[in-house]
Structure to design on (548 residues):
């Protein structure tokens, strides 16, 4: 397929990092002519070496997981921390909450990102390295980009759509003043690489190590090359002043020395080069998708690095952005609906990591200092939609899961623990009441009259399908305001529940849409779905009644 209408490509992707490579790969697979401009020439250095298990299926979808596995990167099974109330290190493992993907990898980003970019080219993307995009303007008529070539010459390129994956440079976000700083994470980071040193004892040898210190916190990530990625996160205003007084390297070394366990791991190690300062910290964009453009990865949002979420958000948003662009190019009406869902789903992921980091900051009691006291005060009792969504997510975690480790090791705000307990209690009570009343008593359930929660809504909405959005059905409640996609069958069942029909009557009403023998075949699955809908609060209650 070739671009038409005077466009150089149907889609231009700005940036060849994980977000840009993922978006370009998925779009090319859909048959769109895609051109990718990357400022640097790969391989190039980049911080952010620690991956999450949630990224493993995304890497599989992109087709790069075998290459990543063959690269020799260290498998990462969890994290070890000096954080919370206990001054001694404690660990959690991914296997406790992610048995399907019990490990991720500690990657060398120069090589990892190159694998992703070469994969995009192998899938048909026109990859142009050494090309810096200076400006991009997008609207209903398409996008126009101004590019500086590697030899210093400039030219313009036009596309029907542009994916801004330009990282923290935030090409479109800055030009449109979309970027909003996060008032809670007023931090900066200084990082460098040490050669030599030692690792944590088994079984935590490959874990990322995080240690809270008076001024903030440290990370140490072992890499298969023998190098340790090391960084310090401090208050932005304080850090700027101290760096101005001491210089970046002395400041960095003194902060690392202030973490006794990190310093012990790095004893005898050599700093391989000058440390790097990252001042552009946590932020989100007020608009993520619009006419002719979409923001992905760090160009859209950046969370505090405490939970190594950067690469995962980049990969997942790149894949989701590609689905949105495909839908917008095929069907403008669906594209407009998909833009809203793209923002909703991306922000949901972003806020999950943000609220988890806020909870960790607020729960730390290993150090008393200006840094920690400021973050405890701001730490979090407000009832925001993001916090409510996070509470719901954590409420489903096993007791030693990724987020739940905080409850055991930190001094968590009472409002948070009470909110988690309330969600869990409501679900447990609904499940117990259903099982006690009905159990295996099929006739009794068939006679019961289900009533939906008055606020429950079933609506037609854009949902993610195979590499693009499609129209589907979503059910929402006050506890799940963003809604959850449901199958056509469940949507038919919900639409037949009117507070008068019994379950048997609902099944009978399905016969107008599904052959009776098929309804009989699906009956066990429908009854199980009714139980789940009650546990999740969509079905408010089951009244006594007779078959309608």
């Amino acid at each position: 397929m070739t671009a038409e209408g005077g466009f150089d490509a149907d889609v231009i992707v700005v940036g060849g990092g994980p977000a840009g490579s993922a978006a370009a790969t998925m779009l090319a697979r859909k048959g769109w002519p895609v051109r990718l401009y990357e400022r640097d020439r790969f391989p190039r250095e980049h911080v952010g070496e620690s991956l999450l298990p949630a990224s493993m299926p995304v890497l599989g979808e992109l087709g790069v997981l075998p290459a990543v596995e063959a690269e020799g990167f260290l498998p990462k099974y969890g994290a070890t921390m000096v954080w919370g109330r206990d001054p001694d290190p404690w660990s959690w493992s991914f296997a406790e909450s992610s048995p399907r993907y019990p490990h991720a990898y500690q990657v060398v980003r120069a090589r990892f990102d190159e694998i992703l970019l070469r994969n995009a080219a192998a899938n048909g993307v026109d990859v142009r390295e050494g090309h810096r995009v200076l400006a991009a303007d997008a609207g209903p008529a398409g996008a126009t980009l101004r590019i500086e070539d590697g030899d210093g010459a400039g030219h313009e390129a036009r596309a029907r759509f542009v994916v801004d994956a330009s990282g923290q440079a935030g090409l479109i976000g800055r030009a449109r003043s979309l970027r909003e700083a996060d008032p809670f994470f007023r931090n900066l980071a200084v990082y460098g690489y040490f050669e030599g040193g030692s690792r944590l004892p088994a079984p935590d040898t490959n874990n990322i190590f995080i240690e809270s210190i008076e001024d903030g916190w440290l990370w140490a990530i072992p890499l298969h090359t023998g190098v340790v990625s090391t960084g310090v996160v401090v208050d932005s205003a304080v850090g700027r002043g101290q760096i101005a007084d001491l210089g970046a390297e002395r400041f960095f070394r003194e902060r690392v020395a202030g973490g006794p366990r990190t310093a012990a791991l790095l004893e005898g190690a050599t700093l391989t080069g000058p440390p790097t300062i990252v001042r552009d910290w946590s932020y989100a964009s007020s608009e993520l998708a619009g006419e002719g453009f979409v923001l992905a990865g760090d160009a859209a949002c950046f969370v505090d690095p405490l939970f190594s979420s950067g690469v995962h958000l980049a990969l997942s948003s790149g894949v989701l952005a590609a689905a949105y662009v495909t839908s917008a190019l095929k069907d403008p009406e669906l594209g407009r609906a998909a833009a809203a869902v793209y923002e909703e789903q991306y922000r949901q992921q972003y806020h999950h990591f943000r609220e988890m980091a806020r909870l960790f900051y607020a729960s730390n009691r290993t150090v008393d200092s200006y840094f920690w006291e400021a973050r405890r005060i701001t730490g979090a009792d407000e009832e925001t939609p993001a916090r409510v969504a996070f509470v719901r997510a954590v409420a489903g975690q096993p007791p030693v899961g990724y987020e739940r480790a905080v409850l055991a090791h930190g001094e968590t705000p009472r409002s948070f623990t009470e909110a988690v307990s309330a969600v869990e209690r409501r679900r447990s009570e609904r499940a117990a009441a259903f099982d006690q009343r009905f159990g295996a008593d099929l006739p009794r359930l068939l006679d019961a009259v289900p009533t939906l929660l008055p606020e429950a809504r079933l609506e037609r909405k854009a949902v993610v399908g195979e590499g693009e959005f499609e129209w589907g059905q979503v059910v929402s409640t006050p506890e799940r305001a963003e809604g959850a996609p449901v199958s056509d069958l469940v949507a038919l069942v919900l639409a037949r529940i009117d507070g008068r029909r019994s379950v048997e009557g609902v099944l009978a009403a399905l016969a107008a849409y599904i052959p009776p023998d098929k309804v009989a075949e699906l009956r066990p699955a429908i009854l199980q779905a009714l139980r789940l809908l009650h546990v999740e609060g969509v079905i408010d209650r089951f009244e006594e009644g007779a078959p309608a």
